Amino acid sequence: MSFCQFFGGEVYKDHFKPGMYVCSKCNHPLFSSRSKFAHSSPWPAFTDTIREDSVTKMMETLTAFKVLCGKCGNGLGHEFVNDGPEEGVSRF
After folding, report:
1. Does residue 16 have a pLDDT over 80?
2. According to the model, what pLDDT value does residue 13 have?
3. Which of 7, 34, 10 lies closest to 20, judged by CA?
4. Which of 62, 19, 12 is nearest to 38 (CA)?
5. What is the mean pLDDT of residues 75-80?
6. How buried is residue 53: exposed, middle or buried, by Cβ count under 10 Å (0-12/13-18/19+)?
7. What element of type H or E holds 64?
8. What is the structure's pLDDT at 83?
9. Looking at residue 40, what is its pLDDT?
10. Domains of the chain in sequence order
11. I want to staple 57 with a disulfide (CB 3.0 to 4.6 A). Which of 15, 35, 65, 76 is the partner?
12. Cβ atoms within 10 A of the Cβ of 31, count?
């Protein structure tokens, strides 16, 4: 599954079949369906990356990081600190 950018119709938001989400530009492994959870945002939500080098993060605010593909630098969205499904868990 490729991680798609949002253009008004994100197809993987409500997709919960087992699998791996990869960068839409270079197929670098990003997220596992095991870390995916239902969220009110229009994008898929994950609690963790597959590997530490799956993404590169740059701090934007005290509670948000800009997230890029760890291989090609494609923009993926944000990590929101402490906004996951459980207390103390972040949301990608």
Report:
1. no
2. 65
3. 34
4. 12
5. 93
6. exposed
7. strand 64-69
8. 86
9. 80
10. 20-80 (2.170.150.20)
11. 65
12. 25
- Are 23 and 2 spatial neighbours (Cβ–Cβ below 8 Å)? yes
Q: Give every CB contact of residue 82 below 8 A, 6+ residues apart in sequence.
A: 63, 88, 89, 90
For residue 14, name the pLDDT band (cuts at 50, 70, 90). Answer: low
Q: Which of 62, 75, 58, 66 is nearest to 23 (CA)?
A: 75
Q: For residue 29, count CB atoms less than 10 angstroms from its CB and return exposed for 0-12, middle for 13-18, buried for 19 or more.
A: middle
Q: Tell me the C-alpha to C-alpha distance, in Å, between residue 77 and each of 4, 33.
A: 10, 17
Compute the distance between CA of residue 21 and CA of residue 63 in angstroms, rounded to an integer. 24
Rounded CA-CA distance 69/25 in Å is 9
Question: What are the pLDDT digits (tens) for 23-71?
Answer: 989 999 999 999 888 888 777 889 999 999 999 999 999 999 999 999 9
